[in-house]
């Protein structure tokens, strides 16, 4: 993995952004280079003591967040050592998803992922469970209670899965009833501008916000570009290290992507790590769908793109030094069907619409061969 200082900083920026989205303010960062995370405590003992000392001097800090999924025992050991709440990357993403879930469908999917995450971590999740189940046991659990509780959770998981299967079937029927119209799905890393683009194309109001995961549910809109109708879907954004359970429980949401005829892969080129984000999206797509389908690369936020001139004595690695938007265009136009736009300012929007039109048309004529 790329462990340059720039990349590590970007990853921690993203983690801080996730924390902020969840309502937390981050005050300090720790980085440790280990060949392998420590089995017992993730961090080495020296680093852990360093964090502990900082916590002792700053009593108003209430949680430590890790940019990885911790094993249940690591989580417990670190918590015992640091005596504050420990949140791992998966837990943080689940908190945000739970905050964002609006519809019954999204709520069910998030709830399933939460319980699956909770099951092996039951000891520490007890208080949470207590609230959910209306106080099964007000004291700490003994082994027997824990076993009872695990069984309860397994039952809940089984029920949620069944509920989701039912929703899946309903949604599959709905999709079938939509007929033969070409289906286009917006995909991309979280916060790249998918909802903004959806609004710009369909002139409807979808919730767009500078927060991670503003969209959890798919929104499907019928869009008409120059008399050519097609269906446009906005869906949940992808992110580095997306919890596996989440991908699984969001299956019916991701079915929209799987069953799309054309993908618009939206990229935020004003983000210094956009190339890594492209890779994350492409590998997530491979995970949920192994069929190749046409993709338009939509490089968004050209208005916010600024290239950085590298200075000779600059110690901070800059990822995209001396690369202009023209360089990017040359590279990508050769590699893929690409377009550079600003969804916000509508820069280059006509070219974008033309490109979408011609790609949709290619598919449309195969479905409706006798239409003009
Ligand atoms: P999504 O998570 O991919 O759906 O992204 P959103 O559509 O919610 O947009 C995330 C943030 O990026 C919002 O604050 C948007 O206003 C902003 N945004 C979207 N498109 C552009 C653009 O072309 N230029 C700039 N500067 N900001 C944009």
Automatic annotation (TrEMBL):
CDD domains: HflX. Belongs to the TRAFAC class OBG-HflX-like GTPase superfamily. HflX GTPase family. Its cofactor is Mg(2+). GO terms for cellular component: cytoplasm. GTP binds at residues 188-195, 213-217, 234-237, 300-303, 342-344. Monomer. Associates with the 50S ribosomal subunit. This is GTPase HflX. Pfam families: GTP-bdg_M, GTP-bdg_N, MMR_HSR1. The gene is hflX. InterPro entries: G_HFLX_dom, GTP-bd, GTP-bd_M, GTPase_HflX, GTPase_HflX_N, GTPase_HflX_N_sf, P-loop_NTPase, Small_GTP-bd. One of its GO terms (molecular function) is GTPase activity. It is found in: Cytoplasm. The lineage of its organism: Bacteria, Pseudomonadati, Bacteroidota, Bacteroidia, Marinilabiliales. NCBIfam families: GTP_HflX, small_GTP.
């Amino acid at each position: 993995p790329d462990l340059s200082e720039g990349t590590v900083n970007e990853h921690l920026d993203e983690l801080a952004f996730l924390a902020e989205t969840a309502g937390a303010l981050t005050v300090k960062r720790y980085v440790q280079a280990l060949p392998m995370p420590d089995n017992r405590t993730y961090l080495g003992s020296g680093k852990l003591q360093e964090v502990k000392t900082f916590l002792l001097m700053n009593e108003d800090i209430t949680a430590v967040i890790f940019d990885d999924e911790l094993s249940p025992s690591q989580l417990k050991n670190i918590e015992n050592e640091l005596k504050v709440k420990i949140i791992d990357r998966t837990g943080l993403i689940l908190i945000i998803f739970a905050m964002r879930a609006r519809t019954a469908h999204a709520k069910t999917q998030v709830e399933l992922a939460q319980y699956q995450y909770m099951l092996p971590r039951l000891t520490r999740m007890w208080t949470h469970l207590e609230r959910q189940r209306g106080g099964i046991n007000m004291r700490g659990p003994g082994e027997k209670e824990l076993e009872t509780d695990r069984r309860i959770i397994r039952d809940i998981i089984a029920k949620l899965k069944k509920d989701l299967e039912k929703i899946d079937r309903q949604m599959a029927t709905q999709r079938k009833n939509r007929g033969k119209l070409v289906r286009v799905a917006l995909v991309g890393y979280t916060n790249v501008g998918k909802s903004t683009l959806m609004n710009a194309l369909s002139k409807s109001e979808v919730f767009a916000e500078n927060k991670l995961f503003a969209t959890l549910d798919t929104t499907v809109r019928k869009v008409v570009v120059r008399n050519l109708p097609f269906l446009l879907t906005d869906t949940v954004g992808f992110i580095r290290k997306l919890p596996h359970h989440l991908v699984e429980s969001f299956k019916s949401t991701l079915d929209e992507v799987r069953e799309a005829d054309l993908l618009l892969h939206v990229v935020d080129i004003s983000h210094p790590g956009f190339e890594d984000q492209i890779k994350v999206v492409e590998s997530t797509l491979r995970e949920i769908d192994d069929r190749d389908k046409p993709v338009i690369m939509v490089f968004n936020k050209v208005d916010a793109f600024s290239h950085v001139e590298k200075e000779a004595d600059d110690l901070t690695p800059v990822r995209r030094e001396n690369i202009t938007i023209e360089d990017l265009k040359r590279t990508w136009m050769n590699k893929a069907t690409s377009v550079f736009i600003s969804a916000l300012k509508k820069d280059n929007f006509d070219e974008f619409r033309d490109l979408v039109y011609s790609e949709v048309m290619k598919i449309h004529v195969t479905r409706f061969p006798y239409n003009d």
